[in-house]
Amino acid sequence: LLNQSKDTIIYLCVLKKQHLFQSDKPESIETTLKNAADGRDIRLIVVTDAEGILGIGDWGVDGVDIAIGKLMVYTAAAGINPAQVLPVSIDAGTNNKELLNDPLYLGNKHKRVYGEKYNELIDKFVAAVQKLFPESMLHFEDFGRSNADVILNKYKDKILT
Q: Are 107 and 61 in contact (CB under 8 A)?
């Protein structure tokens, strides 16, 4: 299920029907998203890397719960069709020592990846979302401050976010 090599890998995790799908290859992001959508007309994606969860900090892949909760609010308060939403968790590792030492933790058990490798994954993710779901809004949620600033400045004038 998880990459057991010593290489640092970034996973794209998509929650679908209460299952977690992971891909260790950025080139498979489009396929992973397409499979998760399962033919649905996705109009809203909440994506997190869960590094900066307010008041809690780094949750790693467990932070997908925040994306799901945010989509529940959109559904209940704004009337968004729940069949048209998709929660996504990007697993770039974690700096949470408790999670790194937890044998039951499902995410990558390495320190968070930053920089070029991380930014490349985000770029490929955004490109895949734009291609597959051109009418969708992409909501970035609870990213760490340094990554959030880069993402916001890069995409604020380019995509619906």
A: yes
Q: Say which CATH architecture domain 11-155 belongs to.
A: 3-Layer(aba) Sandwich (3.40)
pTM of the prediction? 0.84
Terminal CA-CA length for the chain: 32
- Where do the H-state alpha helices sit in the chain? 29-37, 64-78, 97-100, 116-132, 145-155
Q: What is the pLDDT of residue 25?
A: 60
pLDDT digits (tens, 9 = 90+) for 26-48: 678 888 899 889 999 999 999 99
Please state, in angstroms and rounded to a whole number, the distance separating the CA atoms of residues 158 and 2: 34
Structure tokens at 62: 């467990």
Which tokens hold the place of 6?
């010593």
Give the pair of three-digit tokens for residue 52: 């900066």
**CA 58, CA 34: separation in Å to the nearest integer?**
28
Residues of the chain with pLDDT under 50: 1-6, 17-23
Domain borders along the chain are 11-155
**pLDDT at residue 100 in the model:** 96
